[in-house]
Amino acid sequence: MNPAIQKRIDILEKMFEDGRQRSILESDGMRRQISDLRTGHERGLVWREDEAARSVAFCKLLKQWKKPFNGKPLALSPWQDHCVFAPLFGWYKADGTRRFRQGYKEVATTECAAIALQGLIADQEAGAEVYCAATMRDQATILLSDSQNMIRQSPQLSKHVSVYKYSITCEKNAATFKPLSSDHNSLHGLNISRAVVDEVHSHKSRDLWDVLVTSTGTRVNPLIIGITTAGYDRSSICWELHEYTRKVNAGILENDEWFGFIACADPDDDPFDPATWHKANPNLDISIQSSYLKGEAKKAKDSPSYENTFRRLHLCQWTEQDIRWIPMADWDACREEYNQESLQGESCYAALDLASTRDVNALILFFPESNRVLPFYWVPEEAHDDRARQDRQQVMNWANNGFIRKTPGNVTDYATVVRDIMELSKQYQFTQLGYDSWGPASALVQQLESAGFDSSKLVEVRQGYSSLAAATKELERMVVGRTFRHNGDPVLRWMAGNVTVKQDPAGNIKPDKSKSSDKIDGIVATVMAIAMKMADDTVLNWYVPGKLAL
Fold first, then answer.
1. What is the pLDDT of residue 343?
2. Where do the H-state alpha helices sit in 101-224?
3. Is the pLDDT of residue 408 over 90?
4. Distance CA 326, CA 309 (A)
């Protein structure tokens, strides 16, 4: 075996013995690299130690500009050298072109600027077009600014590279480096040789990524790489890239042109254990200090709403929500075996949260004596089938298993919903039926009244903080305190996991549909039902025999 290759293998194998705990995902990526070094030649892959060493040496020409490292060369840590830079630029194909054309790097610390500048200066690509890409232009210019300051700190590079307000150019190979964003008015017509996509988790669609990839067609050695911390939206391009990288590194999928590195905490790791911090922060106590993470961990422990942010940004853990509201472990602990028949005849507060006419609609019955809920859902059959074709197979499965009722046609059949509610009102004692007057609920309420539902029990529940904040916190209190009860309904659990809460300056919170990762109608209806119960309790508490409370 080539001595240089054997040396790389030895280094990677020794890294497993360096005492730092590693996640399954990071370990899989390292094992893939070791396997490639041993057997890659059988697939026509060529390891070029000279190119690997050259890419690492280039980084030393870059000077850091932020304290306490300002003016010092960019020194790569062993993991950055052997797990990122060396494999990224040291692997070639038999035809002489570079192996990796796309990649994904998920880690709490990054070297985005170095990867971009390597493509501008050291890649020997004539007329190179290098871009730092983000969702917004302001975010994209941050990486450009970092690169500009690195160049200014390096007298050697400053001789050959010109820094302008919104670009960097290298005259030797007529290369340019510019920021690019998804709000850019001219994404097409690019001829990209290198693009670093920053903070991929913030991208709401795959449009920018797809444009960048399709703009590399004429380049011999293009590279599009996404660099990010973890996110929460599992329908996003970031989750797609994360999962693809996981499968490639684990050997589930084969793609020799895809590079991937993920350093993260494992799902079941204790986020407040310092050993966990090392998994997601290979540069701990180098570029990020343990004392800082200790403070952030305490903040997350003291403020549950910050915990998910801490997990994503500092531990690279994917969460089920943007801002943590209902911990899913607590939600699962509230499960109790009961059925619809066991609650017949009991008093309840009912709440409707109607989505668009082509989506899931929810009714929640809340039984205050036991804090139990019964959920009911409707979805138009044809629209439901459309959603299933759009990666919503779980919704179809729930409908087929009786958790969601399909109504005929391609829009919600409110006549079916009305009939079902009228039947439920005979089985259970509706104290009130709450609804949001905004949207389709008003028409359905009129149909209920026409069907004979007691109009005095119909209550409009507004969706502002004044109506929902106290009930939102009450539901949170009950779930965390394990006094809330549900029967394990999978749809309601899914919706609970999707919830993101919105907070006003006074600290009031309420569910936020616009920022939640998917449907949350069942949880919104639960909050509405609790709000009606709390309003009734307030009215009753005002009255004291013999006195009038003002």
1. 95
2. 112-117, 137-152, 155-158, 207-214
3. no
4. 14
Side chain identity at residue 22, one-letter code = R
Task: Give the residues across from 459 on adjacent strands.
Answer: 434
pLDDT, tens only, 96-143 = 999 999 999 999 665 788 999 999 999 888 999 999 998 888 888 888
Tokens (6 digits) for 120: 């501008």
Q: Quick: pLDDT tens for 166-197.
A: 999 998 899 999 998 876 556 778 899 999 99
DSSP at 342: G
Q: In the β-sheet with 429-435, what is the strand arrangement from edge to edge?
A: 405-407, 372-380, 361-367, 347-353, 429-435, 458-460
The string of DSSP letters for 194-220 reads EEEEE-GGG-SSSHHHHHHHHTTTT-S
Q: Which of 196, 283, 280, 309 is nearest to 25 (CA)?
A: 280
* 0.85 surpassed by pTM: no
Taken in order of first residue, the domains within the chain and their CATH numbers are 3-262 (3.40.50.300), 274-319 (no CATH), 330-540 (3.30.420.240)
CA distance 413 to 402: 17
Measured CA to CA, the distance from residue 40 to residue 414 in angstroms comes to: 61
Contacts of 207 (CB under 8 A, 6+ apart): 182
